[in-house]
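If I may wish for something, please walk me through the protein I am sending here so I can picture the backbone:
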Amino acid sequence: MRERIGDDEHWRVAHAFDTGLEGWLVLVPRRHVLTIAELTDAEAAGLGAWQVRLSRALHAVTGCTKTYVAQFAEAPGFGHVHFHVVPRAADLPPDVRGPGVFARLNPAPELRIAQERIDEVSAALAARLG
């Protein structure tokens, strides 16, 4: 479930692996794209809709107060376009708010969310997305 929380003809949504935040989602185009400028008009139109749908689902499932959306595509092995849609809880410590939230991606093993919990959150998000 965590690998395909939602999808359509242009996009696929997965839960990030090795994360310290429940509900950290990754929105990935179905075709290999290296830059946002390479998106087709149909892919671009779907992108906005997915970002809003995912933000609403994260709010409903996790209770987050807002979501962050980021796209860098700079990490080794991840140079393709993909968007991080990250729930920001009200109690998220100030040092990991904004860009600092990336400290919660690939954290020390003891800070990672258990796979069972990721599966539960993923299933709830998939149900919410319909």
In short: The chain is about 30% helix and 20% strand. The mean pLDDT is 94.
